[in-house]
Write a structure and sequence with these properties.
AB_hydrolase, disordered N terminus, 8-stranded mixed sheet, 9 helices, globular, hydrolase, 260 residues, alpha/beta, Rossmann fold, Alpha/beta hydrolase, hydrolase activity
Length: 260
């Protein structure tokens, strides 16, 4: 009998809600679900996913209007995305999983751990926020979508991925961005006290130059019983792209701790 190649990637479109959502599965071991950020795709966390393939079975999907999944009518809401995330777990036959989320995906990871603790083995939340007030101007497209001027156009990279992958065509990008800006102006609205409902092992990560103030990230970690906090020096909201090897190592070591 030939062993399954743990590096082989299984791709599919799954019927979730009103959408046919693009999905990838690879690796072998305990399940880890990656949740991408706003105006991102699976590609944005590729380095972190690949780093886990030798020890875990990695699942990832793209929400409507992101990556290879067509957009939907109407605005985005975290409640709807949470329903989609639960439906994805069900479609993959997963009773629970480790959750690794970035930005919007980190918010979803926290919401999932609060509302459905039985579905969550652990949480890694990178660049999460609890409410829009942490942004000086939640409608400032340049501030929210562009990294600090460090000579690397990471926002341009996401736009390139969108133009290459989106079934809606590159001209639809601004529609998605406008819907995201409306979302970020009004949601999430998480009471810090509610984070005490999270009992899964949790790692909260952010950059020390993140557009989300470090004090807010500290508040999130302090509100979750036993949560670990990691602030990466010299990095912004795009820390996973600025220090991919280090972020990948930290995630992998956190997930492997549970086995020791």
């Amino acid at each position: 009998m030939h062993e399954q190649n743990p590096q082989a990637v299984e791709t599919a479109y799954l019927s979730i809600g009103e959408s046919e959502m693009y999905s990838e599965v690879a690796g072998a071991g305990e399940p880890v679900l990656f949740l991408h950020g706003g105006f991102c795709s699976i590609e944005s966390l590729r380095a972190q996913q690949d780093a886990l393939l030798g020890d875990f079975r990695v699942f990832a999907f793209e929400r409507p209007g992101h990556g290879r999944t067509a957009d939907i009518e109407g605005d985005y809401h975290y409640a709807r995305w949470l329903t989609d995330t639960l439906a994805y777990l069900d479609a993959q036959g997963l009773s629970d999983a480790h959750i690794v989320g970035y930005s919007d995906g980190a918010i979803l990871g926290l919401l999932l751990a609060m509302a459905h603790p039985e579905r969550v083995r652990s949480v890694v939340a990178i660049g999460a926020n609890l409410d829009p007030s942490v942004f000086s101007d939640p409608s400032d497209e340049d501030a929210l979508l562009s990294p600090p001027d460090d000579g690397e156009d990471k926002d341009g990279l996401e736009r390139m991925h969108y133009a290459r992958l989106s079934p809606d065509g590159p001209e639809h990008a601004q529609t998605v961005i406008d819907k995201l800006l409306r979302l970020w102006s009004s949601e999430p609205n998480i009471d810090p006290a509610e984070l005490s409902r999270i009992h899964a092992r949790t790692l909260i990560m952010a950059g020390d130059r993140d557009l989300i103030p470090p004090a807010h990230t500290l508040q999130i970690a302090a509100a979750i019983p036993g949560a670990q906090l990691c602030i990466l020096p010299g990095t912004s909201h795009w820390l996973h792209a600025e220090r991919p090897a280090l972020v990948s190592q930290l995630i992998r070591e956190f997930l492997l701790e549970e086995r020791r």
